[in-house]
Write a structure and sequence with these properties.
Blueprint: H1 15-18, E1 23-24, E2 26-27, E3 30-31, E4 38-39, H2 40-56, H3 60-67, H4 71-88, H5 96-108, E5 113-114, E6 117-118, E7 144-147, E8 150-162, E9 166-184, E10 189-192
Parallel strand pairs: 9-10
Antiparallel strand pairs: 1-4, 2-3, 5-6, 7-10, 8-9
Length: 193
Amino acid sequence: MAPPDDGRVIVRSYRLPFNIERRLYRLDRWRIPAPFGVPLRGALYAGVIFALVLLAQRLPLLGDALTSLHPALRFVVIPVVVAGLLAQARPDGRTVHQAVGAWMRHLAGPRALVGFRRADPYGHLVIGAVQLVPDAAVPRYRPAVVYGPARVLLRYRARAHQGRRQLEVEQTGGPMWQGKVLTVPAGSEVRFR
């Protein structure tokens, strides 16, 4: 038995009522033969693609390939199909023109931000002593790479294998009574395994 109709409307998702999209259903007296109309954004995409096809015809290699196509394929089918695909695409939940705009802002924007302002490119950062301490559950060296110039204090027994520009350190035993200081010159690295 159906519940009585008290005039309330049940909304199961707030995304659909607020997802307002303009659509074309008819042009003058001619009804567009699409069941739910054509999104206005898709019609604008088709116009832009039509203009791009006109411009691409003037390019040396691409223009020859485009002019060899039938005009109906070139001026109707290509813009309509590509515009339909672009109107359906939702990269990151956005429309295509919003996603392209965000991508262009990313390319034109700064590589580093500090306090939402442009910062100088990354350079060498000199920091003080950094302690890397294993936790109580596993008293072992953690896998890491230390680039020189640096000084590394080793507190656990280890075996080292020298390469050309890198030194590989592998732990072999428990803690030492007194640690050993390892100096890493500039351009070299120490790799803990």
